[in-house]
Amino acid sequence: MGNFARPKNDHVTSKEMQNQLLKITQKLAELGLNKGTSGNCSVRFGDGFLVTPSGMSMEEMTANSMVQMQFDGSFEQSKKPSSEWRFHRDILQSRIEINAVVHTHSMFATTLACLHKVIPPFHYMIAVTGGDSIRCAPYALFGSQALSDNALQALTDRKACLLANHGMIALGYDLDDALAVTIEVENLCEQYWRILQITQGQINPNPPLLTEAEMREVFQQFKGYGRWAI
């Protein structure tokens, strides 16, 4: 993907950034991409990052619920960060062009993740994730360092991946970008799920895929294609 400057948050207060993170979290629930206490989000802020709290329902959550963390794993006293804080930290620490991380248990991405499916280039919009596939990271216990390590590997040169038997992760240059990638990945997963339904039982159950050359053309075209410009 192209080089994107890190958003300058010097003029943004902690309260404003907490509100932005809350709004994205509320939007995910509104769209049905997360339900109950599932999923979590983070955004780079100051010398660390803000992350959603652990085990808190959307009805309980406020802007003040967001937890400030440092990259050494320390966080605000009297608050408890998401149990998945490790992959949020590791992604933001290792990917300097990324400033926001969204994790969901959305229906279609999670369904395919439970089947350990890699999403191939059946549609050109796969390119929005940075490559010609959406990888599925091997299973590891939620909240563990092993899960974070697996996710980082699956996210190499990508802005999204599936997590086996778990859900998906989407990355963005800011919170709005991460939300847009999340929505597009869930849409692609639904389309692929429906294709697999239609082709089940056929002699050749695999859908036609775009070639490497065709995907290269897509990446070239995306260089001037609105939000997805690379």
What would you say this structure looks like, in words?
The chain has six helices and seven strands. The chain is an alpha+beta fold. Helix content is 35%, strand content 13%. The protein has a single domain, classed as 3-Layer(aba) Sandwich (L-fuculose-1-phosphate Aldolase). Strand 6 and strand 7 form a beta hairpin. Helix 2 crosses helix 4 and helix 3 packs across helix 5. The protein starts with 13 loop residues before the first helix and ends in an 8-residue tail after the last helix. The longest helix has 25 residues. A seven-stranded mixed sheet has the order 3-2-1-4-7-6-5, sandwiched between helices. It is globular, with a radius of gyration of 17 Å.
- Number-wise, the strands total 7
Shape annotation: globular
Helix/strand-derived class?
A: alpha+beta
Instruction: Specify the biggest β-sheet.
Output: 7 strands, mixed
**Main CATH class:** Alpha Beta
What is the fold's blueprint, element by element?
Elements: H1 14-30, E1 40-45, E2 48-51, E3 67-69, H2 85-94, E4 100-104, H3 107-114, E5 136-137, H4 145-154, E6 160-163, E7 167-172, H5 175-199, H6 212-222
Parallel strand pairs: 5-6
Antiparallel strand pairs: 1-2, 1-4, 2-3, 4-7, 6-7
Helix pairs in contact: 2-4, 3-5
